[in-house]
Amino acid sequence: MTHVRRLLIALLAGVALFVTGVPAAEKLRVVTTIPDLKSLAEAVGGDLVEVESLTRGTQNFHEAEVRPSMMLKLRRADVLIENGLDLDSWVDVAILGANNPRIIRGALGLIDVSRDIPVLEVPSGRVDRSMGDVHPLGNPHFSLDPGLAPLITRTILEGFARLAPDHRASFERNRQTFLTRLDGEMARWTKALEPFKGAKIVVFHPDFIYFVTRFGLVQAGTVEDKPGIPPSPQHLVRLIRQMKDEKIKVILVEPWNDVKLANRVAQEAGARAIVFASAVGAVKGADNYIAAIDFNVKILAEALR
Ligand SMILES: [Zn+2]
Fold it and tell me: Three-state DSSP class for 251?
């Protein structure tokens, strides 16, 4: 090989690297704000990505604390996938600290999966954040609605393909494999919850509305007065009366909620409080996307029987 040719090849490789942002042979380093998105990013990226989550499923995502370890992860990242709708707005502080131009606002490497989501529970009036309401832009807990996974994975796919266009076909194949499997599970889940269409449930924090709506159940009340706000005694009295009147059997609780309080309310109302997989990794056995949804379908079908 002549020197000129060698130089030309090196130059072309350099240009390719510049255009795609990532050398073709290397994996995309992906960071997600929550573990549900890690699981979905892995489903799309397969062995072309390496994914880390900034939080664990046992955490309250609204209140995640930005740590130096988060900034270190973000400093090395090619891609950051965020939930959006204010669930993980703390990540902005981590982005600032990471000083990585690949994932700042406006960069190709920042993917907001809420972009195309039909948002539920958008407040009609002005939301007073000083009151503590943590859902000012509508309900941000859409990630574990299996009916929205096609949309979320499409947004992730488009983001990955922008950064590594050579791998678009692989990403599409991976996503299709995942969606085919999800379709099969979805048929099973729908059948399992079919007998309970119209059944009312109460949740501690309103993070199940997308799931509940998907399967034809009804969220009749919440233990929290407003999202993120501890309940007043009057609210609890009303809720217990309503649960008795409407024969509501289940309160769904997240692992970090006041489980004792949920149990007390349930007991007074003649119902059961159940800890559900509010995220991937929130409870034992819910260690990937499909497993988490499967856990929730089973626990609900059992409790409503
Ligand atoms: Zn919330």
Answer: strand
Separation of CA 148 and ligand 1 centre (Å): 17
Ligand 1 midpoint to CA 28 (Å): 30
Alpha carbon of 120 to ligand 1 centroid (Å) = 12
Question: pLDDT tens, 115-161?
Answer: 999 999 998 877 766 667 789 999 999 999 999 999 999 999 999 99
Which helix H or strand E contains 186, and what residues bound it? helix 168-193
Residue 136 alpha carbon to ligand 1 centre in Å: 10
Distance (angstroms) between ligand 1 centre and the Cα of 176 equals: 30
109-to-34, 49, 134, 160 alpha-carbon distances in Å: 17, 13, 27, 8
The answer to whether the CB of 227 falls within 8 A of the CB of 249 is: no
Distance from the alpha carbon of residue 64 to the mean position of ligand 1, in angstroms: 12
Backbone phi, psi, residue 135, to 5°: -120, 55
Q: What is the pTM of this model?
A: 0.90
Residue 220's contacts (CB-CB under 8 Å, 6 or more residues apart) are: 200, 201, 202, 242, 243, 246, 248
